[in-house]
Amino acid sequence: MSLEEAALPHHRFLRGQPWFAALPEDSRARLLDRTLTQASRKGEVMLAAGTPVKGWYAVLSGLVKLQSTSPEGRVSAFLGVPDGEWFGEGSVLKTEDRRYDVIALRDTVLMCLPRAEFDALLAHSLPFNHFLVAHLNRRLGQAMTIIEAGRLRSPEQRVALYLSRVFWQGRRRLVLSQEELGHLAGLSRQTVNRALKSMEQLGLVSLEFGRVAMLDEQALAAYATRPGTPPDKPFPAAPDV
User: Fold this and answer.
1) Counting Cβ atoms within 10 Å, is residue 235 exposed (0-12), middle (13-18) or buried (19+)?
2) Inter-CA distances, 66 with 61, 63, 121, 180, 213, Å
3) pTM for the whole thing?
4) How many angstroms separate the CA atoms of 156 and 230, rounded?
5) Which helix (H) or strand (E) covers residue 103, if one does?
């Protein structure tokens, strides 16, 4: 493998995974050779509902939202996935077609770990399984938070939840527009703007040129989970991801 190939973004991403170094040399070389990338512009459907699932995906750069459409045509986004994170583990563990659309919220590049390679890692790599279990546990926590938010939390609290470490692990500063946050929280841009202004006045966040910085994470978490007025309409539960 040439130095140029080793410097490819998806190769760097794979080499940085905590389970990768524990693999035999031939397995590492095969993964580097067989993983695929896909690029899309903002607003494009990167992976469509109803299509075969080809593998496990990671966001190399950009931001995607996972959304589902009801039989009546109502569209609901239920999760945002930023760069550096995996998604779609529920889909690749099953044999059914994809149950949701993956939409680029900005120009985005995805990496696909093909199903055959995913299955081989699942069967033979204990470090990979440990990583996957921890990842699934985090996704379960996010799904429960989404369900609770729709039933018990006010719109302002939903915005706060979607800014918390439940969804943005390890990030203090988010380059996230109000439009993008509205897509993820299922709220209008006006509602998101009002919520952010309120949180800014309370000293929980700061807003500057489309960036949202969390100034007091503990206070933000307390704000998001305090007793509040439930929404008029229940927020839909998230499908398996």
Assistant:
1) buried
2) 16, 10, 25, 12, 24
3) 0.76
4) 11
5) strand 101-104
Residues 6+ apart with CB under 8 A from 232: none
Q: Rounded distance, CA 142 to CA 87, Å? A: 12
- Radius of gyration over alpha carbons of the chain, in Å? 19
Report the pLDDT value the prediction gives residue 80, as an integer from 0 to 100.
82
The series of mean pLDDT values per 10 residues for the chain, 241 residues long, is 62 96 95 95 94 95 86 75 91 89 93 96 97 90 72 76 69 68 80 88 81 78 69 47 60
> How many Cβ atoms are within 10 Å of 131's Cβ, its own excluded?
17
Nearest 10 degrees: CA dihedral of 163, 76, 229, 155?
40
Q: What is the pLDDT of residue 226?
A: 74
CA distances from 123 to 111, 117, 135, 150, 194 (A): 21, 10, 17, 37, 49
Check residue 3 and give its pLDDT: 43
Q: 194 near 187, Cβ under 8 Å?
A: no
- CB under 8 Å, gap of 24 or more: what pairs does 79-85 form? 79/142, 79/146, 79/167, 79/184, 79/238, 79/241, 80/105, 80/162, 80/167, 80/180, 80/183, 80/184, 82/168, 82/171, 83/59, 84/13, 84/58, 84/59, 85/58, 85/59
Distance of CA 206 to the CA centre of its chain: 23
Residue 226 CA to residue 228 CA, distance in Å, equals 6
Alpha-carbon span 219 to 205, nearest angstrom: 10
Q: What is the DSSP letter of 170?
A: T
